[in-house]
Amino acid sequence: MGQPHNHTHSYHTSDTKLTISIFLNVGITVAQIIGGLLSGSLSLLSDALHNFSDVISLIISLIANRLARKKSTTNKTFGYKRAEIIAAFINAATLLIVAVLLIKEAVVRFLEPQQVASGLVIGLSAIAIVFNGLSVLLLKKDSNNNMNLKSAYLHLLTDMLASVAVLFGGLLMQYYHWFWVDPLLTLLIALYLIYVGFDLLKESTNVLMLFTPESIVVDDIVACITSIEAIKNVHHVHIWQLNDDEVHLEAHLDFNTDIRLSEFDVILNQIEEQLFYEFGINHVNIQPEFGKCDSKNLIVQD
Predict the structure, then answer these.
(1) 44 in Cβ contact with 117 (< 8 Å)
(2) Which has the least CB within 10 A, 14, 105, 127, 137?
(3) Sequence-separated (6 or more) residues with CB below 8 Å from residue 170
(4) What is the pLDDT of residues 67-118, one digit of tens each?
(5) Other CB atoms closer than 10 Å to residue 194's CB: what's the count?
(6) Are 29 and 52 in contact (CB under 8 A)?
(7) Alpha-carbon distance 160 to 196, whole Å?
(8) Which of 275, 285, 128 is nearest to 213 (CA)?
(9) Residue 163 in contact with residue 36, Cβ under 8 Å?
(10) Closest alpha carbon to 204 in 238, 157, 171, 244
(11) 205 within 8 A of 89, measured Cβ to Cβ
């Protein structure tokens, strides 16, 4: 059973929003690299590096968004539905890599503080806040239901927050000459990247590894199915998430009696409806059995 999904319009809308965000972030990145080199600000350069990772992540998300709507074929029976999950994994990993690089540079600058042209830092970080803010607003709604767009959204959100921190640091350096604030802000930005990146990396890894979604308790599934009088046992259960929209279940069912195929169809419809409305499982594959000698364990290790 598969519940119908029509995301063509939303995919095209997401394409447009991602494209606009890419151009905005290319502009920010170029401006911050030039400004960081001229001002000597590590936090501005770190923000530029993060912005550059945003550009890469947005391009990856755009490609994945387009691949995801390609039709299935005989040798790609699931199509490219996992492309968005792979994109989310890559983007989460880049967040962590960028964070490590920023920590390294922050430590070096702590040991060797440098004077910073704070006026340029203030101006460019203010521009970055506006541009990143627009990108965040563009993707916020779509990020709630799509792991790929969530990864792009998190990149942009953390970069906007980083720009706010850089602006604050620029003001402190301008008026109080606290140049140690520059590497401190860089370190804080990096730690925040690790915080948001790790959760997304874990979530996308769970999907790629075919782990049961955390919201689903297998024992509850079994209790639901075995509440049907005709069913004796549920075993050989596999539950996995294909992408943001599809959760699959396959299982073997032992029946108390040797029922007719038409009777099984009625029971199967009942199982599909219960699993969909109670657990959000929208693809069910059941193997009916009667008196078959096989493992009756809930989880069977092949």
Answers:
(1) no
(2) 137
(3) 41, 116, 118, 119, 121, 122, 125
(4) 888 888 889 888 888 888 998 898 888 888 888 887 887 787 778 766 677 7
(5) 16
(6) yes
(7) 14
(8) 275
(9) no
(10) 244
(11) yes
Cα(185)–Cα(173) distance, integer angstroms: 12
Q: Which amino acid is at 297?
A: N
Residue given tokens 């994945």 in the structure block: 64
SS3 of the chain: the string is CECCCCCHHHHHHHHHHHHHHHHHHHHHHHHHHHHHHHHCCHHHHHHHHHHHHHHHHHHHHHHHHHHCCCCCECCECCCCCCHHHHHHHHHHHHHHHHHHHHHHHHHHHHHCCCCCCHHHHHHHHHHHHHHHHHHHHHHHHHHCCCHHHHHHHHHHHHHHHHHHHHHHHHHHHHHHCCCCHHHHHHHHHHHHHHHHHHHHHHHHHHHHCCCCCCCCCHHHHHHHHHCCCCEEEEEEEEEEECCCCCEEEEEEEEECCCCCHHHHHHHHHHHHHHHHHHHCCCEEEEEEECCCCCCCCCCCCC
Residue in the structure block whose two tokens are 């880049």: 94
Q: What is the pTM of this model?
A: 0.77
Summarize pLDDT for 288-302 with one digit per residue, the tens: 999 898 888 898 876
Q: For residue 252, which amino acid is it? A: H
